[in-house]
Amino acid sequence: MATTSLHASPEHPAGPRRRDAAGTRQLLLDAARRRFAAHGYTGTTVRDIADEAGVNVALISRYFTSKEGLFEACLVGAVDELSHAVAPDVTLDGVPSAIAEHLAGTGVGSRPDQFLLLLRSSGDEQADRIRRNTVHSFAERLATAAGWRPGHPDGDRIMLRAQVALATGFGIVLLRSSTGLEPLSSAGPQDLLPPMRDLIDALLREPGPR
Amino acid sequence: MATTSLHASPEHPAGPRRRDAAGTRQLLLDAARRRFAAHGYTGTTVRDIADEAGVNVALISRYFTSKEGLFEACLVGAVDELSHAVAPDVTLDGVPSAIAEHLAGTGVGSRPDQFLLLLRSSGDEQADRIRRNTVHSFAERLATAAGWRPGHPDGDRIMLRAQVALATGFGIVLLRSSTGLEPLSSAGPQDLLPPMRDLIDALLREPGPR
DNA sequence: GCATGTTGTAAACATCTGCTGACTTGGTGA
DNA sequence: TCACCAAGTCAGCAGATGTTTACAACATGC
Questions:
Q1: Mean pLDDT of A9-37
Q2: Total structural domains in chain B?
Q3: Does the pLDDT value for residue B70 go beyond 90?
Q4: Nearest nt to the A59 alpha carbon by C1'
Q5: Would the CB atoms of B175 and A163 count as touching at under 8 Å?
Q6: What is the per-residue pLDDT for B207?
Q7: For position A23, what pLDDT does the model report?
Q8: Is residue A80 domain-shared with residue A29, that is, in the same domain?
Q9: How far is CA A51 from CA A9, A72, A90, A120, B208, in A?
């Protein structure tokens, strides 16, 4: 545990750099993402993060100004994650599989628990604004796939349904990580796909007002 | 604000009792429920709770042993809330309206944000067990309404779908309270009902395996 | 009145938390 | 070689946090 206090991967074939600002910055970011996602903002201490990263506490202030600064940096990572989860120009047919794969964590670099950062408030106004904007724009992306356009006659109705679908996604991630609810927690993308397909179809694919 | 530091409702026609153990206990419980639901366990301090209840901090330890004890007491309230949200013998037809009404907070004594307590971990093992059991049993209730029985041939498939539906409920409450996402946040039960009906139908009302 | 148990108050405690400042260590260019 | 600066360490501060302890105010039974 205390054998290599500096870097997680001590063996580095060509250049085992010991003093690497970008490297330790990344170590801190990774550790913080895990901690914040698992325990929330107030439930995570800077010493927790530093220990998990194997890095001195003071470096958090150096590289990210403050705990809030570090949280914001984590947040943009989560924003990126969500952006890549479903492409901006996705069609309604592609939505269920994209969601199923990213929720199950089998996407290429997908880390589903990062979505939780978007739900964990830090109390910081700036961070909260990022969270809100991200969730909002993603809901619009989903609604757009369902035919929504700004100023659409019953745009509110479609948007509401898109947001309900989005809520399902967040709820699944939350239930999986928060409670070990089975069979949901260990469901793979192939398990999640059928219900998600039915759900998206029912919510977003109806021709006109009922 | 500091006019009546003792009880929330100063005017009490017959007997404005000042020394009322059960009363102050309840004041603490109510304040704690609000605080814990809004800011999570670690984000809430005992002094916050005591101040909001207009009660001395030390009484938390007296009446609930510890902060964790108070959280557990809040949790059983949330369990009760969830139990009353949907009756144990509900039929599949009654589920959507029950959910819509309780999510929108228009039920008789329904406080939807209390559901959040079931998602906010305190790190306490006992409390976490309560949370898990409650969510699990509620998922079973939902699955039962969809025809699930213990040992059912493809019970896992039905249960998974029930849990996805449950996830939607939690996700909606979370999005409403965490982000001010519109139109979801200000949607009333009449707005929520149609999508919930479609969702429940699609997830839980299919005759056989596809 | 007065002893007794209950309810509420105030202050302090030990620890934790975020952050800072002075310092050491290591690499690099002149 | 050595000055210089970036990277990392260490100890500590000031405030917050959960909890406890000693005490005061109130009600009730005798």
A1: 76
A2: 2
A3: yes
A4: D8
A5: yes
A6: 56
A7: 93
A8: no
A9: 15, 20, 41, 22, 52
